[in-house]
């Protein structure tokens, strides 16, 4: 075998590998595209971002953490360029906490450092997830979707306090947060 035939065989092998990689990427795109357009994710909740602040669930008085008489804890928050409201969330430790959030303008998102809380906030949709913070402490909550020139300054904090202390503060059904007044 001459050097040329060895080189040609090697090139042919690599061409086949590359063709297989491209074919599998295209297959993934086609399958997910068709599959997702045929079956959108269940439980899609929509909301009008233009009237968010004047009526409905996300009016200012309703933002923050609330505890219903049966003990369910819900955090409602709104993201906008370039802040979260409320900017400091108060939650109990060791109790499931449901987050409900949306955006008034562009796509934002947040994660709570050191936990599995991580979600995108898309205008027109309500994002929701439930998580449990294991112990009291304070976490940073940065915006993690690039949302414009002020993106890197878009932060909030999550303060986790003992469950009984939280119950004392939120037990009357009021919205609570750790925003200093
Ligand atoms: Cu909001 Cu990045």
Question: In terms of topology, how is this protein built?
Answer:
Blueprint: H1 3-38, E1 64-67, E2 73-80, E3 83-85, E4 88-92, E5 96-103, E6 108-111, E7 118-121, E8 127-132, E9 137-142, E10 155-161, H2 163-170
Parallel strand pairs: 2-5, 4-10
Antiparallel strand pairs: 1-2, 2-3, 5-8, 6-7, 9-10
Dinuclear copper ion binds next to loops.
Descriptive account of the structure:
- The mean pLDDT is 91.
- This protein has helices spanning 3-38, 163-170; strands at residues 64-67, 73-80, 83-85, 88-92, 96-103, 108-111, 118-121, 127-132, 137-142, 155-161.
- The strands form 3 sheets. Strands 1, 2, 3, 5 and 8 form a 5-stranded mixed beta sheet that branches.
- The chain has 181 residues and is α+β, with helices and mostly antiparallel strands.
- The protein is built from 2 helices and 10 strands, in the order αββββββββββα.
- The site of dinuclear copper ion has 9 residues, from loops.
């Amino acid at each position: 075998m001459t050097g040329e035939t060895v080189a040609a065989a090697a090139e042919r092998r690599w061409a086949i590998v590359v063709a297989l990689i491209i074919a599998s990427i295209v297959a993934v795109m086609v399958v997910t595209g068709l599959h997702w357009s045929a079956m959108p994710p269940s439980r899609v909740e929509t909301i009008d971002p233009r009237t968010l602040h004047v009526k409905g669930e996300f009016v200012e008085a309703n933002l923050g953490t609330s505890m219903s008489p049966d003990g369910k804890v819900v955090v409602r928050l709104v993201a906008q360029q370039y802040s979260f409201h409320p900017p400091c969330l108060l939650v109990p430790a060791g109790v499931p906490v449901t987050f409900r959030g949306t955006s008034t303008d562009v796509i934002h998102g947040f994660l709570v450092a050191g936990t599995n809380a991580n979600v995108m906030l898309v205008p027109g949709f309500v994002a929701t997830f439930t998580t449990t913070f294991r112990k009291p402490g304070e976490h940073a909550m940065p915006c993690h979707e690039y949302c414009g020139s002020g993106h890197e300054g878009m932060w909030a904090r999550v303060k986790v306090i003992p469950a009984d202390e939280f119950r004392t503060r939120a037990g009357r059904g009021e919205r609570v947060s750790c925003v200093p007044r």
